[in-house]
Design brief:
- It holds the Pfam family adh_short.
- Helices cover 43% and strands 15% of the residues.
- With 273 residues, it is an alpha/beta fold.
- The chain has one domain: NAD(P)-binding Rossmann-like Domain (Rossmann fold, 3-Layer(aba) Sandwich).
- Helix 5 links the parallel strand 5 and strand 6.
- Helix 1 packs parallel to helix 2, helix 3 packs parallel to helix 4 and helix 4 packs parallel to helix 5.
- It starts with 6 loop residues before the first strand and ends in a 7-residue tail after the last strand.
- The relative contact order is 0.15.
Length: 273
């Protein structure tokens, strides 16, 4: 038996990276997974995003644990599209207990100061997309009537301004990830009467395709920003997706039943430097 038996979880950005790690780990603990991903690139974001094949692989890995998976394609920036996709998952798996709002983008290394499409794409995905996720999922949690847990995946850049370089990319990323904290705290208050807990996790750089791609690696080699990468603990260039997943697992589990409205760094000391 798992800690999450007989639950249904929605995970956005589930095609690969952190989202896939969260999906498989929650399934191993007994949750059925509605796995959401855009499965397409965003013009202003300078690296390839997850694909339909990636999302199908996540679903296969979930099903290999013995749990059910409902992979659905939706852009979190589009509320109607996201809500329709989530409804499809609910029709297949049932009402929702857990939400992991994980979808996010970055454009580290793009040093243009006035690139409005980059700024807008980042904020619309990382902040508005989390709000849309709440709108698309919380009514189902309330209807189910047994409470639940929402985890918003922010960033260490949601707790510090270190590494700011004046670029539209870094301004958009830091602003959006700080905004997630405000959204989380407000939602924790709003949904408490329904016994829905809301928290955020704040990773430093994670070893996923969001960071490990040709654009980011090449730009960081050309113009390194030590303040972005430097961490307090030695020999930790990047944290692993599983490290973030462990925090997510705890927050959605009964072990954290009285934990709500908190921000948990998983950053090897990045924000205390």
């Amino acid at each position: 038996m798992g800690e999450l038996d007989n639950t249904v979880a929605v995970i956005t950005g589930a095609a690969r990276g952190q989202g896939r790690s969260h999906a498989v780990a929650l399934a191993e603990q007994g949750a059925d997974i509605i796995a959401v991903d855009i499965c397409a690139d965003i013009d202003a974001i300078p690296y390839p995003l997850g694909t339909k094949a990636d999302l199908e692989e996540t679903a296969r890995l979930v099903e290999a644990t013995g749990r059910r998976a409902a992979p659905v394609v939706a852009d979190v920036r589009d509320l109607q599209q996201l809500a329709a996709a989530v409804r499809g998952g609910i029709d297949e798996l049932g009402d929702i207990d857990i939400v992991v709002a994980n979808a996010g983008v970055v454009a580290i290394g793009n040093d243009e100061t006035d690139n409005e499409p980059v700024f807008t794409s980042i904020v619309d995905t990382n902040l508005k997309g989390v709000w849309h996720t709440l709108l698309a999922t919380v009514p189902s949690m309330v209807r189910k009537g047994r409470g639940g847990s929402i985890v918003m995946v922010s960033s260490s850049q949601g707790l510090t301004g270190r590494g700011g370089d004046g670029s539209a990319a870094m301004f958009g990323y830091a602003a959006s990830k700080h905004g997630v904290v405000g959204l989380m705290r407000s939602a924790a208050n709003a949904y408490a009467p329904h016994k829905i807990r809301v928290n955020s996790v704040h990773p430093a750089g994670v070893a996923t395709p969001m960071i490990i791609n040709d654009f980011v690696v090449n730009r960081m080699l050309e113009n390194p920003n030590p303040a972005v990468a430097q961490m307090l603990l030695p020999d930790v260039p990047l944290v692993e997706a599983q490290d973030v997943t462990e925090a997510v697992l705890w927050l959605v589990s009964p072990r954290a039943r009285y934990v709500t409205g908190v921000s948990i760094p998983v950053d090897a000391g990045h924000i205390v430097m």
